[in-house]
Amino acid sequence: MFCGFQVRRCELVTEGGYLFDSAAPPAGQRFYGLEATFDDATFRHLAATGVGVGWSCWEVGAGGGSVALWLAKQVMPDGSVLATDLELGWMPTGSVNLRVERHDVTSDLVPEGAYDLIHARLVLVHLPERDRVLATLAAALRPGGWLVVEDFDSAFADATYAATADEAVVRYAEHAVRRMLALRGADTTYARTLPHRLERAGLCQVGGEGRVVFTHGGSAAAGVVAANLRQAGEQMQTTGLVTGEEISRAISLLEDPALLLATPTMISAWGRKRL
Question: Which of 106, 149, 171, 260 is deepest in the core (most CB within 10 A)?
Answer without folding.
Answer: 149
